[in-house]
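Sorry to interrupt, but I need a hand with the structure work. Could you write out one complete protein record for me, on any chain you like? Just paste the record in under my message, thanks.

. . .
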Amino acid sequence: MTGLRRLLRDIEVFQGELPAFDPRTAPEDPAELFTQWLLHALEAGVREPHAMTLSTAGADGNPSARTLILKDVTAQGWQFASDSGGVKGRDLAARPYAALTFYWSPLARQVRVRGPVATESAEMGAADFRARGAGARAESLLGRQSSPLHDPGERDAQVRRSLERLEREPGLVPPGWRLHTVRPQSVEFWQGDPQRKHTRLNYRSEQDGWVRELLWP
């Protein structure tokens, strides 16, 4: 066994006292349970509990994943934002489906959301962009995400110029900025257990509403 393999096998998981979860008391709407879990994570001191992994696939079917910040949960679904010219935007244009994964390690809790992605109105996208911090807006206005960077100094200089431009034109919004909503077909809640008796509660969207079912660990 290699040193790294041994190290990985020896890392302890599910440390500390974990929260209880009785799926029989779960609400009918997964968004309500998600909000409860998110607030619990925030109260428990979990750092950045609104961070999530967004997984997409392009026209060639190859998957891509990255960590983003959840923008909102509405009656329609879970929202995130991106530039249409980046990898995320191109993937969604080719295949408008996505998966979201939240993992709150101190609580041994995971939430998985899967479904089609709808692009919201330009007005909603613009409002989201203007609510971002100045640094995030300045970088996004460059429109260079995922393109090769040959000199970090060039990046820094362009961001400075972009910040100066925002001071002159605070209402600027890049033309490709979009707000997206994952409209869930399934939402799974996973509660870890030190004895590996994990609880998995899956919400499946049907024509008449949500169907709740337990899954084997």
In short: The longest strand covers residues 109-119. The chain is about 30% helix and 30% strand. The chain has a mean pLDDT of 94.
